[in-house]
Amino acid sequence: MWFLLFWSFLVIQRLAEVRIAKSNEKKLREKGAVEAGKDHYKWMVFMHVSFFAVFFLEVYVLSATPPSWWLVPFVLFLIAQVIRVWAISSLGVYWNTKILLLPGATVVAKGPYRFMRHPNYTVVSLELLVIPLIFGAYYTAILFTLLNILMLRVRIPAEEKALMELTDYEKSHGHKQRFFPSQ
């Protein structure tokens, strides 16, 4: 029961984020936004949808059980949620699941973006590891952590290249760490 509630919460949260992203996409495109990284986007969506399916199967069908230390990944998950909301609210209309950029825009440098270049990717990476660990879904945690690493090796260079070509990214963010906070 706990698992189904948690899993349902995650699915509803992601669907709400897709709605926000679609709304933001419409606003940005009306202002002349350009999309980068179209080729890999469908694979990223497939990976994230697959995560929910595999996670569900490992826990609900294969009967993975929470480890005695489940509270550790759960606390990390809660911390990730705070940073997720902080990152999304800091970017405002610029937050999206796609790489959408307004040519000549000033890159957001507030919230967690003051300290690191990619707090949202850090959150997603943490979640793909700790969400399955809460329930003892070790195969899901390992598989999707590895797939996410591969995805980010494509996604981040595509995003940073577009940011450098179209915005003041290098000047405002070039000195910051990608995933870990720095001053």
UniProtKB/TrEMBL annotation:
GO terms for molecular function: protein C-terminal S-isoprenylcysteine carboxyl O-methyltransferase activity. One of its GO terms (cellular component) is membrane. This is Isoprenylcysteine carboxyl methyltransferase. Coiled coil: none annotated. It comes from the Bacteria. The chain crosses the membrane at residues 40-62, 69-95, 129-151. Its main location: membrane. It is a multi-pass membrane protein. Keywords: Membrane, Methyltransferase, Transferase, Transmembrane, Transmembrane helix. It is found in: Membrane.
